[in-house]
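so my prof wants the structure for this chain in the tokens format not the other one, which i didnt know existed until like an hour ago. anyway here's the sequence
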Amino acid sequence: MQLSDLRSITTTKQNIQILEVDNEHARASISLFGGHVISFIPKHDQRPRLWLSEQAVFDAQHAIRGGVPVCWPWFGDHQATRVDPNDKRFPAHGYVRKQHWKVVDYQDTTTGSKIILQPNSSQGEGFDGHTQLSLIIKVGPSLSMQLLTENLGKQPFSFTCALHSYFAIEDIHHCQLKGLSGDYQDKTRDWQVLPTPSPYTFNEETDRVHLSQPKHVTIVQDNGSIDIGSSGHDSMVIWNPWAQNSAAMADMPDKGFENMLCVETAITQGHTIEPEETHTLEQIIK
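here's what i got, hopefully its the right format
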């Protein structure tokens, strides 16, 4: 498919353009606001892998709740906000998830569809690196997302980032996470360092940074597992807001927490990239 033909597979949801990918292997929807995959359904089992809030806002102003938001060039709060909580200049999780992205390449092959997206600008307030950010999405029997950070400048720079994936869960009370080990930092307990539970189940608000780099993590549930492959990361972030926080979010149903779990492939400790180098953060969902 030529880029000029993309209009034939583009729809509009409120104020946002959506690419609708439908090939012999899978269907996927990709928002051009935020460079944001919002659905992925393999055809071999017709089971959605990603969760999207029924109350997600598509106004091209607010980040979309669900799917796979791109967090870059910082994950969580900007350093200035951490120093001064009253400093609201910089949005949480960076600025590209509220940018419009453009399609720079689109290819259909026998193995699936490949889409390359770039934000209108990789530069923004609060980040000094001279860089080009790209997202390569491959929709086939699995969903592959590669977030490429290229240093175009003459000086090294550091950044953090994440593919903040929301996975569709049948019931958060009856699922397990397998593949993580060692210790994690618990944000809900003032960043205490605690051992990874076994079995890894969920019964409360969860916001954990696992400082490990497993290549594979699996969500196990009665209606089928979800396999998550990762590379280029220094952490896995596990998040579920639970009942009170879910009810407080305007873009999330009160009981939305019961059907989602975020398993995020991330760089939380900071990565320095030298001039002319490119870093790739990848997540593969099956």
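also thought this was worth mentioning. The chain has two helices and 20 strands.
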